[in-house]
Amino acid sequence: MANPLILKLEHGADLTDEDRALLQSLSSGARQIQAHRDVIDEGDRPENVHLVMEGWAYRYKVLPNGKRQIMAFLVPGDFCDLHVAILGEMDHNIGTAWGCKVVDIPRKVIDELGQNHPRITRAMWWSTLTDEGTLREWLVNMGQRQADRQMAHLFCELLVRLQTVGCADEDSFEFPLSQTDLADTLGITSVHVSRVLQELRAQGLVIWQDKRLRILDVPKLKAFSSFEPRYLHLNKRRNRGISHGNAPLR
Amino acid sequence: MANPLILKLEHGADLTDEDRALLQSLSSGARQIQAHRDVIDEGDRPENVHLVMEGWAYRYKVLPNGKRQIMAFLVPGDFCDLHVAILGEMDHNIGTAWGCKVVDIPRKVIDELGQNHPRITRAMWWSTLTDEGTLREWLVNMGQRQADRQMAHLFCELLVRLQTVGCADEDSFEFPLSQTDLADTLGITSVHVSRVLQELRAQGLVIWQDKRLRILDVPKLKAFSSFEPRYLHLNKRRNRGISHGNAPLR
DNA sequence: CGCGAACTTGATATTTGTCAACTAAGGTGG
DNA sequence: CCACCTTAGTTGACAAATATCAAGTTCGCG
């Protein structure tokens, strides 16, 4: 199976074969983490950077009143905490949604990359910055869309993201979340998730069973949720004008 | 008046006098931009990085149905589009909330900093990463708090952020937004903003008049909104244990 | 086979949105 | 300096979206 990290980072920089070989060795030696465990917690100052290679994890915070907000999904190819090298301590938690394979990469290895491997470094910053773009889109999603569109938008995003790392086919992907997880992601209750899902099913938009989500009509779901993937910045670099001022492709 | 950029970046790295002098010259020559103008738009590939030195701007997106979501406030010391160097094109718009002084910094100057000024580079990445942390907190805010707490939380955040750049006193700051701007920030309607504000006023928490927001009881407002500033990562570095002398990425 | 977690359903409550009318304030031209 | 006009904010009545509570139901797993 192709390496999700490499598949992803190809979008952020023009990697060489040497870069790919290095990333391949970097992302080997994953350890299994059980479902519903924390990978890191708020306040931690981890020595290693964590990279998801299989399964799902998520960023989340819990408020004093016990309410939980999931702020990002970490799927294969995603780094959990690249930023910790600079920020010092985690300002949120990361937990596994399901069984998950994670590689621990010592910070000094990351630092070494930063000094001697400019394309990989660039690709990692590209990855951090697209995470930020995704966060902005989630904010739009929560602020301006009602629950049904918001959920549909999330499904569209996940389809595209998982396709780029080889973890989704044309119209479906493994979706190992509970409805409660989904509720805490969208900022609604799990009761409402259940009802909205039934509506999406009734409209013939999605099927969700056996931990797999199938989108029955992808263009329709994208239109329904006004999904515009620009924020994912997924155009392969080699397909783009290299320097500034060029007309946008697409 | 002290330079907001320097005041801010001191939190992200241990700057030298030389660094400060460089930042000082970098942030001079601001041009005035009128209120309610766009600084950059989605799809742009700007040649310059923009730095706010006075006034307020905000990041926003507009959906096909006309709804607007404000995703960040840019106050003195904030960069508008540091990420564009890597992502290539803007995935959102930036507009002025009020008259605003902005410095245009050529991308090549930023690149040069990245090569020869490691502390400044580190501080700029710190700034980008705290922006991301702020975004995460806004997501929590929108997803899990009701409108009154959410608004209170925003006020607390702004007080702290503006204090660090010398733009707020102990309990108040210039707040040049309309209630509609605030509504599009919190993901509620302007009618609801009006009502929530009256409630906060009635509870003796805030006064907002003449474009100035005054928090009558700061600890009370922080408790009310369960404001926890860890996500702003504002501890001056010299007050923290300095761990590894790792080089910045890039 | 039975237990518990996840999901569903129905009734009702709360929060927030919508619409429309009204008031206040600031700017402009006469 | 006043009349007017526009924009921002306020208010009330009502509607829609979503939350809450409580009671089922289903299903995987020991």
Give an account of the 3D structure.
The structure is a homodimer of 250-residue chains. Chain A is of the alpha+beta class and 250 residues long. Chain A has one domain (4-232): Sandwich (Jelly Rolls). Helix content of chain A is 41%, strand content 19%. Chain A has 9 helices and 10 strands. Chain A has helices spanning 4-9, 17-26, 84-87, 107-116, 118-144, 147-164, 179-186, 190-202, 218-224; strands at residues 31-33, 38-40, 48-54, 57-62, 68-74, 93-96, 100-106, 172-174, 206-209, 212-215. A 4-stranded antiparallel beta sheet of chain A has the order 2-6-4-5. A 3-stranded antiparallel beta sheet of chain A has the order 1-7-3. In chain A, helix 6 crosses helix 8 (190-202) and helix 6 (147-164) crosses helix 9. The longest helix of chain A is centred in the middle third of the chain and has 27 residues, at 118-144. Chain A is globular, with a radius of gyration of 18 Å. Mean pLDDT of chain A is 92; it is low at 241-250. The interface between A and B is large, with 63 and 56 residues. Chain A binds a DNA duplex (30 and 30 nucleotides) through helix 8.
Oligomer: homodimer
Radius of gyration of chain A: 18 Å
Low-confidence stretches of chain A: 241-250
Approximate helicity band of chain A? 40-55%
Shape summary of chain A: globular
At CATH's second level, what is the architecture of chain A? Answer: Sandwich
Pfam families (chains A, B): cNMP_binding, HTH_Crp_2
Protein name (chains A, B): Cyclic nucleotide-binding protein
Keywords (chains A, B): DNA-binding, Transcription, Transcription regulation
InterPro entries (chains A, B): cNMP-bd_dom, cNMP-bd_dom_sf, HTH_CRP, RmlC-like_jellyroll, WH-like_DNA-bd_sf, WH_DNA-bd_sf
